[in-house]
Design a protein that fits this description.
heterodimer, A: mainly beta, 6-stranded mixed sheet, 4-stranded antiparallel sheet, about 0% helix, globular, B: about 110 residues, mainly beta
């Protein structure tokens, strides 16, 4: 069975600081991996995806993520966060039949 | 419309009543998904429709839950004899055929069972 673990329930960073959100997955084959963001009062939005090829993928809003097969990880990074990045971030793994989501990491931005 | 539309946005009901939630996907999106998000939890897969194929109902938590979709259009999620543990945000998403995992979500229907 596939599963996703996001070890950090909450993360607080200062505006302008770098960010890394952790994600570990369990999947029986080469995974499709995703990061979604849920801003207050808004629906979930796809940030980026990994299907194959280059293990470093770029997404919207300046985010990137790196697929590391040896560590079963797909961590999300951003060099410099903005106050508008405060949101809930979900890592997901899956394929055509739908995605399995992690429980999310709540990102708090300090001024 | 431009995005996935869900209604109602909020629903308060009494324990034991039936509720119906509606999802209008993006035009042309053949795949449609329902997820449940309980407070402080991740998204829990409920059901998946792909075109005219038989739906994947493997995530429905009990026989009180059912969903229908006519062709590649509107879907309704019905919860019969609601229980307090059904209180959650019910999210609908749609995607294009072949674009696995690239889901476009609606803003959800918040269900509160008293």
């Amino acid at each position: 069975a596939q599963s996703v673990t996001q070890p950090d329930i909450h993360i607080t960073v200062s505006e302008g600081a770098s960010l890394e959100l952790r994600c570990n997955y369990s999947y029986g084959a080469t995974p499709y991996l995703f990061w979604y963001v849920q801003s207050p009062g808004q629906g979930l939005q796809l940030l980026l995806k990994y299907f194959s090829g280059d293990t470093l993928v770029q997404g919207i809003k300046g985010f990137e993520a790196e697929f590391k097969r040896s560590q079963s990880s797909f961590n999300l990074r951003k060099p410099s966060v903005h106050w508008s990045d405060a949101a809930e971030y979900f890592c997901a793994v899956g394929s055509l039949g739908g995605l399995t989501f992690g429980k999310g990491t709540h990102l708090i931005i300090q001024p | 419309g431009a995005g996935v539309s869900q209604s109602p946005s909020n629903k308060v009901t009494e324990k034991g009543k039936d509720v119906e939630l509606r999802c209008d996907p993006i035009s042309g999106h053949t795949a449609l998904y329902w997820y449940r998000q309980r407070l402080g939890q991740g998204l829990e897969f409920l059901i998946y429709f792909q075109g005219n194929s038989a739906p994947d109902k493997s995530g429905l938590p009990s026989d009180r839950f059912s969903a229908e979709r006519t062709g590649e259009s509107v879907s309704t999620l019905t919860i019969q004899r609601t229980q307090q543990e059904d209180s959650a945000v019910y999210l609908c998403a749609s995607s294009l055929r072949g674009r696995a995992g690239e889901l476009f979500f609606g803003e959800g229907s918040r269900l509160t069972v008293l």
